[in-house]
User: Which sequence fits this backbone?
């Protein structure tokens, strides 16, 4: 790619499905090459991202998070705020956030960012400021390949859409104030109306919402069909067995912090998610982070995850180019 940079798909991985090109690798020609040296090649990089799903920029000098922020913003779309979140994050600098703040020992499964809504970023960047001493990788997977590999019956059922159910607060999930970035119930209701979310204020003052969303989607530029949901994260089968049993006994299925249903409101059985998780695992690519790495993904074409880790780790995230899905 260009005359001064090396483009290669030969990235050392600990796991990669046959035929996968993720991520395409672009390495700096020499030490101290600034990340900004890639600015003249943005169109080429975007072309590779749309073909492969993601690009790893390795060996470039990224002195500060502000340099990463400037690079992500230079693609022509304002960086997005993290709104209607499902996981805790902290803003580092205008439009740059910490990666999901889950405990280090927990695994975060593959997902496309904000695929539990009908609005998501098309572009997402990760910057490894500090690699963990052990683990802490950001596995990725081709969402087109996941769609193709998924059993036809599951793919068909999910193509009709899904309904996500959320019960906020009560110490079980994020409070609605944090998710909607407001203390005002009227502002929550306005946001729900705008986003096509049904809501209910429960007797204890907490909020329950339902939202009809896509299970699969068609990429607006490439036309490719992709697996585009977070059903396996929201379904009760994602909970440890003893936690799930305790929660259902104490609050009932209807008050679980999160759940997901078929479009017609019927339950999705555990066996379906066993098969889904097997497909996700089969398409996963895992590579070790190096400090300074920048990973750019098309958020519809590539899903991402996080492995457990030990020791300090700092990976920051930026998102851009909002897209809204409309039922067909």
Assistant:
């Amino acid at each position: 790619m260009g005359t001064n940079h090396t483009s290669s798909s030969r990235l050392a991985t600990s796991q990669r499905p046959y035929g996968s090109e993720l991520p395409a690798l672009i390495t700096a020609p020499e030490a101290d090459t600034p990340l900004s040296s890639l600015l003249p090649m943005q169109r080429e990089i975007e072309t590779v991202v749309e073909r492969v799903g993601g690009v790893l920029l390795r060996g470039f000098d990224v002195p500060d998070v502000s340099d990463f922020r400037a690079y992500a913003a230079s693609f022509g779309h304002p960086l997005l705020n993290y709104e209607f979140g499902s996981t805790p994050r902290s803003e580092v600098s205008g439009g740059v956030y910490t990666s999901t703040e889950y405990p280090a020992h927990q695994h975060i499964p593959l997902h496309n960012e904000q695929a539990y809504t009908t609005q998501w970023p098309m572009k997402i960047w990760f910057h490894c400021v500090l690699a963990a001493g052990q683990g802490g990788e950001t596995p990725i997977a081709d969402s087109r390949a996941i769609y193709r590999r998924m059993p036809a019956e599951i793919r068909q059922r999910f193509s009709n859409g899904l309904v996500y159910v959320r019960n906020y607060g009560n110490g079980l999930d994020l409070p609605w104030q944090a998710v909607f970035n407001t203390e005002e119930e009227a502002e929550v209701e306005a946001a729900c109306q705008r986003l096509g979310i049904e809501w209910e204020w429960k007797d204890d003052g907490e909020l329950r919402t339902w939202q009809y969303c896509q299970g699969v989607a068609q990429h607006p530029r490439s036309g490719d069909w992709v697996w585009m949901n977070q059903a396996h994260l929201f379904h009760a089968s994602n909970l440890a067995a003893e936690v799930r049993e305790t929660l259902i006994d104490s609050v009932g299925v209807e008050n679980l912090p999160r759940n997901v249903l078929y479009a017609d409101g019927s339950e999705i059985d555990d066996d379906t998610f066993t098969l889904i998780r097997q497909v996700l695992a089969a398409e996963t690519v895992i590579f070790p982070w190096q400090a300074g790495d920048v990973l750019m993904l098309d958020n519809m074409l590539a899903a991402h995850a996080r492995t457990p880790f030990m020791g300090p780790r700092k990976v920051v995230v930026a998102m851009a180019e909002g897209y809204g899905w409309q039922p067909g």
Summary: The chain has two domains: 6-142+286-324, 146-279. Residues 148 and 226 are 8 Å apart (CA to CA). The domain at 6-142+286-324 is CATH 3.60.130.10 (Double-stranded beta-helix).
